[in-house]
Task: inverse folding
C-alpha cells in the first residue's frame, strides 16, 4: 500500500483507495512483464543448483537474485511494511538497520499467525512454470527473427523476474486489505462463517463476478496499449490481438490468463485465509458488539 | 546492448540495430519515470549524510542504494558488459563471482582508457537536480489531492531512482556504439578531426537534427500514451498535454526536456569523447588503410 504519512486509517482502508492501488498495480505488472519479455526464456536460471559451483548456492540463479536483493531490502526495512512479503524465508534475511516507518496498523494481526498469509511460494511456481515460458515463447517471432531459448542474459532476465515477482506479491497480498475493508463494513455478515469456518461462504461474500469480468477487459486494453507496436514517430500501430505476441512486445493472452487463472484465485485465497483468522484473539465482547450492529 | 549470443558483430553494430535498441529504451525510461512519480520528492534521500547515524554511510540514502545494488550486480558480472557503467567507483565494488559472458568485442578499447567514457556523475546530477523535482512537483495535484513533499517512502523511491539511473546510463553510454558504427562506415571522414582533435567537427559529423527532432516528437507521443489517464475499463481518456501532470501519471514537459537538455547532449559528449580516443593504440598502417578507403 502506498502508505502516505499522515493519511487517516479510514481513508487508507476505503475500498476506493484500495481499488485505485490495485488498478495502478496492473500497469506496473504489465510493463514489468513487457520488460522481461525482451530476454529469452533462459530456463537454466530456474534450475536449482545449475550455478552451484560458481555461486556456492544450492538454489537456482533466480533464488540467488531474490536472496541478494531481499537481503538488501530487508536492511532498508522493506519487510516491516504490512504489504510486503519476502520470497526468502525471513529468518535468512538480515534485520532492518534503520528504524521502521511508523505506519498505521491497518490489519488485524493475531499473535499466533506471523507474518500473516504468505503465498509467495505459489506465486513463484506459477510464474516460473506458466508465465515466463508464455511471454518468451520460442515460437514467437520478433522482428522477423526467431527468439532464442537462451540468450545468455541471465542477470538482466533475473533482475526483471525479481521485479515482476515483487509486484505480483504486492498485488496478491493486497487481498488482506480488501478483506479487512469489507469485514469492517459489515462484520456481522462474516462472523458466523468465521466462527463456524466456511471458506466457501466467505469467498462468496467477497466475490464480485462483474468486477472480475471488468478487470480482465481493462487488463487486455492496457496490455494492448502498453505492449502494442509504435512506429518511429511514436504513433500506435493497430495490430490484431492474436498478432500481438508476434509483432508487439508481449503476448496478450498470457497476461489475461495469468490474472484469470492465477492472480485472481490466489488473491481470493489470501482474502479468505485472512478472514478465517480475523477473530483470533478478538475478545468475545467485541464480537457481540459487531453482531448487534446487524440490527442497529 | 542486448547481446544475443551468436549474433554477428556486423549485425550488432548496424545502425538499425542500435537505433531499435535506443528507441526501445525510451519506453523503459518513460515507464520507470512514471513509476518513480508515484512517490513524493523525498529530498532527504538525496542529502549526503542524512542517514549517517543509522547507515554508517557518509553518502546519501540513494548512494547507499546504488552501492548495495551495484555490489550485488557486480558479483553477477553486470559491469563486465561493455554497455554497463556503475555509479559507484569500480574499485569499491566486488569482483564477479561468475565467469563473464563471452561477448563480441564491439568497441575499440585503448589500454590507457578504462572503462571508456563514464558520465554517470553528470547523469546523477541532472537527475537529482532537475528530473526528480520536475516529475514529483508539489504544485502537482493528483486525484484532487496535493502531493506531499515527503511521504516517507524512501525505499520505494530510491529503488525506482536506481532503475531510472541505470536505464539512463545505458541509453547515454550507448553513444559509444553509435560512434563506433558511424566511424566504421566512413573512417576517413573522422580521422583528420581525431588526429588534429576537433570536437566540434566530430560532433557535426554525428549530429542529425532531423533525427533528434523526430525523437522528441516520438517521445512525447509515447509519454502521452504510457502516462495518460485510463478509465476503469482501461479506455484511454483524452487529456490536453498541459493537464497531464495534474491528471495523468507524469509531467510530459519534464520528460521531453530531459531528453532535449540532458540525454541528447550527454550522449553527444559520450560519442565525441569516444571518437577522440578512437585512434589511440591504432597502428599507423591501419590508419593509412582507412584513409585510402576514401578514394577507393
Result:
Amino acid at each position: 500500500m502506498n502508505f502516505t504519512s499522515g493519511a487517516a486509517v479510514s481513508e487508507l482502508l476505503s475500498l476506493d483507495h484500495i481499488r485505485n492501488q490495485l488498478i495502478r498495480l496492473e500497469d506496473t505488472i504489465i510493463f514489468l512483464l513487457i520488460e522481461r519479455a525482451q530476454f529469452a526464456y533462459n530456463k537454466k536460471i530456474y534450475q536449482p543448483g545449475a550455478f552451484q559451483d560458481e555461486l556456492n548456492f544450492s538454489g537456482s540463479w533466480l533464488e540467488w537474485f531474490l536472496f541478494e536483493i531481499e537481503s538488501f531490502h530487508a536492511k532498508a526495512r522493506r519487510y516491516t511494511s504490512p504489504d510486503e512479503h519476502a520470497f526468502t524465508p525471513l529468518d535468512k534475511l538480515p534485520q532492518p538497520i534503520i528504524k521502521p516507518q511508523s505506519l498505521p496498523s491497518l490489519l488485524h494481526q493475531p499473535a499466533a499467525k506471523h507474518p500473516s498469509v504468505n503465498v509467495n511460494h505459489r506465486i513463484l511456481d506459477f510464474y516460473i512454470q506458466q508465465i515466463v515460458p508464455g511471454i518468451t515463447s520460442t515460437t514467437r517471432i520478433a522482428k522477423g527473427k526467431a527468439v532464442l531459448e537462451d540468450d545468455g542474459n541471465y542477470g538482466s532476465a533475473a533482475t526483471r523476474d525479481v521485479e515482476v515477482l515483487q509486484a505480483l506479491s504486492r498485488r496478491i497480498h493486497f487481498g488482506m486489505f480488501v478483506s479487512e475493508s469489507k469485514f469492517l463494513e459489515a462484520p456481522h455478515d462474516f462472523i458466523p462463517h468465521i466462527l463456524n469456518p466456511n471458506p466457501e461462504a466467505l469467498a462468496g461474500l467477497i466475490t464480485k463476478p462483474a468486477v472480475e469480468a471488468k478487470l480482465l477487459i481493462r487488463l487486455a486494453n492496457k496490455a494492448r496499449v502498453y505492449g502494442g507496436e509504435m512506429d518511429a514517430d511514436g504513433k500506435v500501430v493497430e495490430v490484431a490481438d492474436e498478432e500481438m505476441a508476434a509483432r508487439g512486445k508481449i503476448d496478450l493472452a498470457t497476461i489475461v490468463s495469468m490474472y484469470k487463472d492465477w492472480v485472481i484465485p490466489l488473491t481470493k485465497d489470501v482474502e479468505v485465509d485472512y478472514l478465517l483468522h480475523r477473530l483470533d484473539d478478538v475478545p468475545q465482547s467485541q464480537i457481540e458488539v459487531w453482531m448487534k450492529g446487524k440490527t442497529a
Q: What stands out?
A: Chain A touches chain B through 58 residues (CB under 8 Å). Chain A has one domain: 19-292.
